[in-house]
Backbone:
């Protein structure tokens, strides 16, 4: 493959062997012109030795700062050897090397996207990646955000069933201001929901969820909204400049978009409680 993709405002070229299976949702973002970045993905049986300073380490990731930018060795918790290496070679290019024996590791959306460090490119374009399921209702997006297993997909499904809304993505949204208004834009990761559409929807509200025995909704102050939304943003905390820009953008977001807390059940009454708050 040698093709161009566009995610939000980020247009890039991806070159890789035909044996690499590109996830179906990622292919929905194929297209565009004038790419500003290039990724070259190859298969290998040995990763290079990279000179750099260690800036982050966790069981499934090692990050180095190099002369050209950043290098990441990507793995799986519990397995000592990485399955991929991401290496920036210039300000507009990166190499991605994948262990040929572990090619299956990258066939799912999150793993494949992680190979490209897309959050680094998106923050340069003033775009945020929010962990959320979101629906389009009457031409606007309602975003449901919370830690995993809290009920994001459930609330999106309730709005589909009870109000005729349409789920746009079941796990992630790319948030960016366009012509003075915040939009939820397509992102090629959708979690277990299987719902991923490549389109832009203006944001009506962000709703932070918690489980409860009774349904109640309240609008959050900007301070409370900031802390809750920031906790669900994809951000490289080892990158100080990027982290500061994320915080600035979240501050801007909560000042301009209503943010609510919905303590909810899994019933239509949760829809009614949020609807009353929205109105």
Residues:
């Amino acid at each position: 493959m040698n093709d161009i993709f566009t995610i939000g405002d980020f247009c890039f070229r991806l070159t890789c062997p035909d044996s690499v299976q590109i996830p179906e949702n990622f292919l929905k973002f194929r297209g565009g012109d004038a790419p500003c970045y290039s990724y070259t993905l190859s298969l290998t049986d040995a990763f290079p030795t990279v000179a750099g300073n260690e800036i982050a380490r966790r069981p499934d990731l090692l990050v180095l700062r190099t002369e050209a930018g950043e290098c990441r060795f990507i793995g799986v918790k519990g397995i000592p050897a990485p399955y991929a290496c991401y290496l920036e070679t210039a300000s507009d290019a990166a190499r991605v090397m994948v262990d040929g024996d572990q090619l299956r590791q990258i066939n799912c959306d999150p793993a494949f996207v992680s190979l490209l460090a897309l959050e680094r490119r998106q923050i340069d374009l003033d775009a945020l990646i929010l962990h959320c399921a979101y629906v389009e209702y009457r031409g606007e997006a309602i975003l449901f955000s919370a830690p995993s297993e809290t009920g994001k997909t459930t609330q999106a499904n309730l709005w589909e069933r009870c109000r005729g809304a349409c789920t746009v993505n079941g796990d992630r949204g790319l948030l960016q201001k366009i012509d003075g208004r915040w939009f939820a834009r397509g992102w090629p990761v959708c979690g277990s929901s299987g719902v991923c559409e490549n389109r832009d929807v203006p944001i009506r509200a962000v709703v932070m969820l918690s489980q409860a025995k009774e349904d109640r909704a309240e609008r959050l102050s900007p301070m409370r909204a900031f802390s809750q939304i920031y906790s669900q943003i994809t951000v490289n905390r080892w990158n100080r400049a990027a982290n500061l820009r994320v915080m600035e953008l979240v501050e801007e977001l909560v000042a301009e978009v209503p943010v609510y807390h919905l303590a909810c059940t899994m019933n239509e009454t949760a829809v009614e409680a949020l609807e009353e708050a929205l109105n």
The chain has a mean pLDDT of 94. Helices lie at 24-27, 109-114, 118-124, 152-163, 222-230, 240-256, 268-278. The chain has seven helices and 16 strands. The first helix runs from residue 24 to 27.
